[in-house]
Amino acid sequence: MRSRTTTPIVVAAASLVLLTGCSTGTSQANSTSTSTGSITVFAAASLQQTFTTLGRDYERAHPGTTVTFSFAGSSDLVTQIQNGAPADVFASADEPNMRKLTDAHLIDGSAEPFATNSLQIAVAPGNPERIHDLGDLTAPGLQVVTCAAPVPCGAATQEVEQAAGVTLRPVSEEQSVTDVLGKVESGQADAGLVYVTDVRGAGGKVDGVAFDAARRAVNTDPIGVVHGSANADLARSFSAYVRSEDGQKVLAAAGFGAP
Amino acid sequence: MRIPWWLPVPAVLGGLFVVVPVLAMVGRVQWGSFAALVTSPASLTALGLSLGTAAAATGIAFVLGLPLAVVFSRVRSRWVGVARAVVLLPLVLPPVVGGLALLAAFGRLGPLGGFLDAHGVRIAFTTAAVVVAQTFVAMPFLVTSVEGALRSSGDRYERVAATLGAGPTRVLLTVTLPRALPGIASGLVLCFARALGEFGATLTFAGSLQGVTRTLPLEIYLQREVDPDTAIALALVLVVVAVVVIGATSVRSGLRPVTT
User: Fold this and answer.
1) Which residues in chain B have Cβ-Cβ distances shorter than 8 Å to A173?
2) What is the pLDDT, as a whole number, of residue A46?
3) 8 Å CB contact between A149 and A158
4) Domain range for B152
């Protein structure tokens, strides 16, 4: 099984954080009560746009802090953290991936939900194939793309299929939701099941079609402070910011639902 | 030649650099469940698809790449240099970029894809798309290998054959190509091995569906999400296949130093 050989990396990261913390910390020590320094946030790929904005806003509100991000698929990030990657905060696109870390006691305290997301049908702009519900995707000749069952968006796809009593015959089961979106954006596929936020983020290159069964598979995004964080105070402060009113505004603008 | 006394040190380090990670991966294989993991229907389907598509891609690369190699090695023109640089581009291009390029050409909205679509031929999301992606990334390996062999064999025998009255086609088939056979063989092997490992272009261009487009590397990538043990077991299968394929030729030809 995996062994955790975190010590050298954590020590290196800690000393780095301490160094930067000292150099920037003195001038800002009296401005706010929260800590200064830098943290690294591991966040799901689907959070890239919103968390980049959140990080910039947080840095502006808390001078002397630096928030850097590593975006990848949630399960990739979990594997990296299990193998000792120097993450301070982990924001997952789903609960099962976060559970892998909480079960292994790699998250301090508990992980807290900060947003929800649900599926929409992504279609070409103007909806040329006139797709209005999940059932329309079974039309013969229609090239439909979904996520593969093992990835979070694929699990959600199976749930909505069951809820709606529809069996899709996708021409491709992609590894990630961005791959599904890409196939629709490029015109390779006529339709694909992606998250509401992906449609919003595509900026007009696809249209989104909402459907009833999507409510039966609402995905919750949790956030938590990684155990052994060299700057746990700042990590907690950032996590709290994501869940604060200001943070929720940014998430809502991107199409995320409230937790 | 005698090699300097110190040379084996970095050479051994270089060897370890490749061997250690592979051995470390083998160390993670769960042998108890290995047989069950690699003989699951999804695994066998992916393996079969991989072998079939890689063989098809190698065949196409042979038909299209061999003439290219002959032209590159025998035609003297500065345009050949330009053409070579372009044709060998997939060697240095990230495969995902190759996938995007193929999508632009053969995709439904691309010029070739649109033409084919209008005539009822749809490449997107079919096994043919996998073969196209593999051929695109693997053919340069065959071209460089064969071109190198043709260059080092020189054209003396060809000129002699021509003075004895043999036409260009006869010279090509009876003199040029037989003399380049080892290079052609190793080119075919490299091409097959590269096609077998193709991932990025396939994922971008062909998609991923069991039995149709999900080759072994894609299956490994997907299994890694939920079942690292299966991913490791399948990775070992791919390593073994690659070692067998490469070993089959390099053991025979590698025993004697390269001479020109």
Assistant:
1) 207-210, 214
2) 85
3) yes
4) 56-77+91-213
Distance CA B77, CA A65 (A): 60
In chain A, the domains with their CATH numbers are: 7-116+220-253 (3.40.190.10), 119-216 (3.40.190.120)
How many domains does the structure of chain B reveal? 1
Q: What is the CATH number of the domain that holds B70?
A: 1.10.3720.10
Indicate whether B166 belongs to any domain. yes
Give me B41's structure tokens: 């229907």
What are the per-10-residue average pLDDT scores of chain B (260 residues)?
91 96 92 90 94 97 96 91 92 92 88 87 90 96 94 90 92 92 92 94 91 94 85 92 81 51
To the nearest whole Å, the CA of B238 is away from the closest chain A CA by 20
Give the count of beta carbons closer than 10 Å to the beta carbon of residue B212.
Answer: 18
Terminal Cα distance for chain A, rounded? 34
Rounded to whole angstroms, the Cα distance separating A245 from A57 reads 13
Q: Which residues in chain B touch residue A174, judged by CB atoms under 8 angstroms apart?
A: 207-208
Is the ipTM of this structure higher than 0.85?
no
pTM of the model: 0.81
Establish if B3 belongs to a structural domain. Answer: no
Does residue A182 sit in helix, strand or coil?
helix
Residue A169, classified by CB atoms within 10 Å of its CB into exposed (0-12), middle (13-18) or buried (19+), is exposed
Interface of B with A (CB under 8 A): 103, 107-109, 124-125, 203-204, 206-210, 213-214, 218, 221-228
Between the CA of residue A210 and those of A123, A131, A197, A200, what are the distances in Å?
11, 10, 12, 12
Instruction: Please tell me the distance from the alpha carbon of residue B195 to that of residue B115, in angstroms, as a whole number.
Output: 27
Q: Is residue B161 part of a domain?
A: yes
pLDDT of B253 reads 55
- From chain B, the residues in CB contact with A179 under 8 A are 203
DSSP per-residue codes, B157-196: HHHHHHHTT--HHHHIIIIIHHHTHHHHHHHHHHHHHHHH
Q: Which residues contact A72 (CB under 8 A, 6 or more apart)?
A: A42, A44, A45, A80
Which are the contacts of A164, defined by CB distance < 8 A and separation ≥ 6?
Answer: A133, A134, A135, A211, A212, A213, A216
Phi-psi sector, A246: left (phi>0), alpha (psi -120 to 50), beta:
alpha
Question: Does B229 map to a domain?
Answer: no
The alpha carbon dihedral of B98, B102, B105, B108 has a sign of negative
Query: Is A170 close to B107, i.e. CB distance below 8 A?
Result: no
CA distance B214 to chain A (A): 9
Tens-place pLDDT, residues A87-114: 999 999 889 999 999 999 999 989 999 9
